[in-house]
Amino acid sequence: MRQGSIQTDRLIRTWLLLAVLSIATTALTMLNSTGGGRYAIGLGVLLLAGAKARLILRDYLGLAASVFWMRAFELSIGLFLAAAFVLFAAGS
Questions:
Q1: ∠ CA(55), CA(4), CA(50), 5° rounding?
Q2: Which of 22, 37, 47, 68 could cysteine-pair with 33, CB 3.0–4.6 Å?
Q3: Confidence (pTM)
Q4: What residues does each domain of the chain span?
Q5: Distance from first CA to last CA of the chain, Å, rounded?
Q6: What's the rounded Cα separation, in Å, for the pair 70 and 44?
Q7: Under 8 Å between Cβ of 63 and 73
Q8: Positive or negative torsion for Cα 45, 49, 55, 58
């Protein structure tokens, strides 16, 4: 198998995973929940967003080869998503 074919296969797999995660996010937002359930839905949406960001950084931007940058982006995205959840919870 050629190197270009492996790269293309990985990008197609990543695209499919992103599509599945997007469908899951859409399905999650359609749930009608009250009380603590909405916090679970909010957290789920943010976790799915983090998973999609990681896929894009790793496979589309090629950061899988750079451990330092991958960890730096994961940390910053994780902190941002945690802050977003805190703001969501405080505003609800």
A1: 0
A2: 37
A3: 0.86
A4: 3-91
A5: 53
A6: 22
A7: yes
A8: negative
